[in-house]
Amino acid sequence: MKYKRILLKLSGEALMGNKQFGIDNNRLMQYAEEIREIADLGAEIGIVIGGGNIFRGVQAERGGMERTQGDYMGMLATMINSMALQAALESVGLFTRLQSAIEMKQIAEPFIKRKAVRHLEKGRIVIFGSGTGNPFFTTDSAASLRAIEIDAEVILKGTRVDGIYDKDPEENASAKKFDTITFDEAYKRNLKVMDMTAFTLCKENDLPVIVFNMNSKGNLKKVVTGEEIGTLVTV
Ligand code: GTP
């Protein structure tokens, strides 16, 4: 195993699978199985999941809603996904704890860094819900922040593409994938790895990011065991 402690960032949209909205149970269970594979290897796993399959604050703002209101609604959406993921992980026999950046004590522990680390040491998967608890921050920023706080060795950003390309691979057949790239090079080329807040947090804290295709079976295990799939972004 190459990485012992990881922060896995999952996209909320990916949870939709082929649906237009909400959570596709097959996709959810597929993710739970993928995660179980790496838990069985002894990986210590923190997870942040987005909420875009349920609510997007940015779009609500375009519709006239105040940004902060929309962002808080988005944070609640991440809690719905986090709870679904927690249930799925437990259904495949894993031990989990859900911590929320916004207090909702009937359904989640509050985020407490020391407690999160202790859970990880005991082999529990810790899901971090409600983003950072602040509007104007994305769940990528939450993933970066939590990864740094729990001393994760790497952020694994699970997406629906195979990595970072020089052009949009869904629009250009000639797009070339990078196996590795530095934060500076990605910035110069204006490649969208994460939003700038998340990107800067990772860069300044020397936290590598691997962007990989989470929807392809076995990929998560490959990444954790050091197979060079996806794109590795380093300082
Ligand atoms: P240790 O005993 O310290 O290893 O951890 P633990 O998580 O097993 O202990 P604790 O007694 O804190 O938690 C027992 C259960 O209660 C776990 O499922 C926690 O997730 C849950 N729990 C703890 N604090 C809270 C809380 O504030 N709100 C909710 N909803 N659940 C909590």
Summarize the structure in words:
With 235 residues, the chain is α/β, with parallel strands linked by helices. The protein has a single domain, classed as Acetylglutamate kinase-like (Carbamate kinase, 3-Layer(aba) Sandwich). The chain has 8 helices and 9 strands. The protein has a 9-stranded mixed β-sheet with strand order 4-3-5-2-1-6-8-9-7, with helices on both faces. It is globular. Guanosine-5'-triphosphate binds at residues 97, 105-110, 122.
- Can you give the helix content as a percent range? 25-40%
Would you tell me the structural class of the helices and strands? Answer: alpha/beta
Query: Biggest sheet, in brief?
Result: 9 strands, mixed
State the CATH architecture.
Answer: 3-Layer(aba) Sandwich
User: Could you tell me the number of beta strands?
Assistant: 9
| First-to-last CA distance | 22 Å
Number of domains: 1
Which strand order do you get reading across the main beta sheet? 4-3-5-2-1-6-8-9-7
Low-confidence spans: pLDDT under 50, at least 5 residues? Answer: none
The string of secondary-structure elements, in order, is EHEHHEEHEHEEHHEHE
Give me the number of helical elements. 8
CATH topology: Carbamate kinase
Average of pLDDT: 97
Highest-level CATH class = Alpha Beta
Task: Say which molecules are bound, naming each kind only once.
Answer: guanosine-5'-triphosphate
CATH superfamily: Acetylglutamate kinase-like
Gross geometry:
globular
Gyration radius (Cα, Å) is 17 Å
- Beta-strand content estimate: 15-25%
